[in-house]
Write a structure and sequence with these properties.
The chain is α/β, with parallel strands linked by helices and 271 residues long. It has nine helices and ten strands. It has a domain at 1-82 and 215-271: Rossmann fold, CATH 3.40.50. It binds adenosine-5'-triphosphate and magnesium ion. Residues 8-242 form the ABC transporter domain.
Length: 271
C-alpha cells in the first residue's frame, strides 16, 4: 500500500497577526512544507521571519489565518490531542513544583505508564542529558542550560515519531551543544523520529539536517530549501565537523541566507 503519510504537511499556510490601530503583521505567507517520516528538517532565517510561528502552528498552539496543516495525516488539533509529537521550545517550560525526575516522567505518567517503567526510562534519559546527579533537584536549582536539557529529555520521554524543537540548544555551552547534537542524531536514527528544528546556527542546521529550509521576513516566506544530508548516524560524528562536505553545506546555506534581505539579518548566526 502506498499511503505513507507525511509527518508534517503544511499547505498554503498564512498567519497574520492583527496589530493595534489596524496595523497588522504577516508572520507567514503561503508557506508549503512537507516533512517525511524520519526526516530532519531545520528552519533558519532572520529574527522575526516566522520560524516560531510555523512551529507553533504545527503544534496547534496557534491557528493559521488561511491554509491547512496536518500531522501524520491528521488535523493539527487531533495530533495534539493524541500527543503524536514531543515539543522542546526555547523556554524550558518546566513545572517548578516538580523535580527533574517528576518533569521528565510527566508525559509517561499522563499516559499511565507504571512506576518501574517510568523510573527506568527517566534514568536512561538522565544519563543521556548528563544530569543523573540532579534527579531530585527542582528547576530553580538548575542553570538555564540544565533546565533546557531537562525539557529535551521530557520531549524524548515517549520516543515520539515527531519532535518539534525551537532553538532547543540555544542556552547550552558549545561543548554541551555539540554533544546534544550528536545525541540527537543518534536518537533520531534509533527512534526514526522526524524533526522540525529551528536554529540560528548554520553549522548546527547543516550537521543535523536532511534539508535546511531558509526563510525571509515580512512576510515570512520560504526562499530556499537546501539538501544537505551528510549521511547516516555512523558518518555524523565529530570528525564530520571538520570535513569538506560539511563546510560545503555550511557555505550553501550561508549563500542562501545572504539572499535574504539584510535589513532583517540581525540575529542570524553566520559562524
Ligand atoms: N502573538 C503574536 N502577536 C502579534 N505578532 C506576533 C505574535 N507572534 C509573532 N508575531 C510576529 O510575527 C513575526 C514572526 O515572529 P516569530 O516569533 O515567528 O519569529 P522567529 O522567526 O521565530 O524569530 P526569532 O528568530 O527572533 O525567534 C514577528 O514580526 C512577530 O512580531
Ligand atoms: Mg523564534
Amino acid at each position: 500500500m502506498n499511503d505513507i503519510k507525511p509527518a508534517v504537511e503544511v499547505r498554503a499556510v498564512s498567519r497574520t497577526f492583527g496589530g493595534r490601530k489596524g496595523a497588522s503583521v504577516t508572520a507567514l505567507e503561503s508557506v508549503d512544507l512537507s516533512v517525511a517520516p524520519g526526516e530532519f528538517v531545520s528552519l533558519i532565517g532572520p529574527s522575526g521571519c516566522g520560524k516560531s510561528t510555523l512551529l507553533r502552528l504545527i503544534a496547534d498552539l496557534d491557528t493559521p489565518t488561511s491554509g491547512e496543516l496536518s500531522v501524520f495525516g491528521k488535523p493539527a488539533r487531533q495530533a495534539r490531542v493524541d500527543q503524536d509529537y514531543g515539543i522542546a521550545f526555547q523556554q524550558a517550560g518546566l513545572l517548578p513544583w516538580k523535580t527533574v525526575t517528576g518533569n521528565i516522567e510527566l508525559p509517561l505518567a499522563l499516559h499511565g505508564a507504571g512506576r518501574s517503567e517510568r523510573r527506568a526510562r527517566v534514568s536512561e534519559l538522565l544519563e543521556l542529558i548528563g544530569l543523573t546527579d540532579f534527579a531530585g533537584h527542582y528547576p530553580d536549582q538548575l542553570s538555564g542550560g540544565m533546565q533546557q536539557r531537562v525539557a529535551i529529555a521530557r520531549a524524548l520521554a515517549e520516543s515520539p515519531k515527531l519532535l518539534l524543537m525551537d532553538e532547543p540548544f540555544g542556552a547550552l555551552d558549545e561543548m554541551t551543544r555539540e554533544r546534544m547534537q550528536n545525541e540527537l542524531v543518534r536518537i533520531c536514527a534509533e527512534t526514526q523520529a522526524a524533526v522540525v528544528f529551528v536554529t540560528h546556527s548554520i553549522p548546527e542546521a547543516v550537521f543535523l539536517s536532511d534539508r535546511v529550509v531558509v526563510m525571509s521576513p515580512r512576510p515570512g516566506r520560504i526562499t530556499d530549501v537546501i539538501d544537505v544530508s551528510l549521511g547516516g548516524p555512523a558518518e555524523r560524528d565529530d570528525s564530520l565537523r571538520e570535513d569538506e562536505a560539511f563546510f560545503r553545506g555550511v557555505a550553501k546555506v550561508r549563500e542562501a541566507l545572504h539572499g535574504v534581505p539584510v535589513a532583517g539579518a540581525r540575529g542570524v548566526d553566520t559562524r
